[in-house]
């Protein structure tokens, strides 16, 4: 099994949902209504396996508002929402800056040594 994540930029939520629906229809075959789970989900009535689409088991479509910049208001601190980029570099940089603004003298995500467990007897002398 695999998971696919589709996204599109749009100015209208309805248009965006239609675009995603068309992409889902083009890429995947719906799961048969009489299927009892995963048995036979790779079977195809087509004689050519070159045109066989993967079976869609479950899908979810949502609208995500994209905001830019870090905003602060009184005691409220926030970072931008994820955008269309999959690497999240902008979010990490904004988070690091926000952390520095709140905790001036602290290191951002410091490296810690491996935790020492009190119930570990491997270091005890015999």
From TrEMBL:
GO BP, sorted A to Z: small GTPase-mediated signal transduction; vesicle-mediated transport
Alphabetical list of InterPro entries matching this protein: GDP_dissociation_inhibitor (IPR018203)
GO molecular function, one term: GDP-dissociation inhibitor activity
Domain of life assignment: Eukaryota
SUPFAM superfamilies: FAD-linked reductases, C-terminal domain
GO cellular component: cytosol; nucleus; Rab-protein geranylgeranyltransferase complex
Protein name: Uncharacterized protein
């Amino acid at each position: 099994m695999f998971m696919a994540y589709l996204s599109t930029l749009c100015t209208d939520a309805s248009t965006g949902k239609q675009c995603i629906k068309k992409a889902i229809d083009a890429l995947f075959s719906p799961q048969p209504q009489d299927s009892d789970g995963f048995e036979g989900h790779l079977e195809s009535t087509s004689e050519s396996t070159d045109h066989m689409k993967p079976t869609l088991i479950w899908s979810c479509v949502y609208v995500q508002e994209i905001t830019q910049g870090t905003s602060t208001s009184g005691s409220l601190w926030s970072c931008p929402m994820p955008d269309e980029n999959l690497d999240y570099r902008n979010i990490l940089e904004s988070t690091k800056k926000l952390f520095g603004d709140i905790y001036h003298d602290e290191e951002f995500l410091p490296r810690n040594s491996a935790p020492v467990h009190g119930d570990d007897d491997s270091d005890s002398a015999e």
